[in-house]
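As agreed, record minuted below.
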Amino acid sequence: MSDSLDHVARIQAQWRQERPELDVSPQGVIGRLHRLAGFLSEELAVVYQRFGLGEGDFDVLAALRRAGAPFERAPGELASFTMVTTGAITKRIDRLERAGLVSRRVSESDGRARVVGLTDAGRQLIDQAFTEHMKNEHRLLSVLSEPDAKELERLLAGWLKYFEG
């Protein structure tokens, strides 16, 4: 086997040897996407950690910041925007509240409901962290030409639409 093959290509070659009757070509896309996701997650986490955040913390703060002034959302909204359970979101909110980055208050429209909002410190932190996050994402994409990056985005958006509906 050639050393010029990437990890996925080596796995495919092994499967072709062992199970030549199977078409292992999907591994070429799915296996590489899976491996890239792992590498990208590690690279993105470096920036989160620099700001004392985990990926989940970053997601909550970013969801609040994207809400626009007054930078508030209901916990259920945060759970749906960050694709985690309400139990998981509660733990994240608790941690961020202890750090002084978010606060909770009673909803003005429903006295039984709670609203989570960014504190001034939380807004400053997510603004700084998001700026660095975007620089990092630009760096990660810089290995692709601009046309290739746009084509990859187009292809991935179409594929993702299939799953998201």
About this structure: The chain is about 65% helix and 5% strand. Helices lie at 7-18, 26-50, 55-66, 75-82, 86-98, 120-141, 146-164. The mean pLDDT is 92.
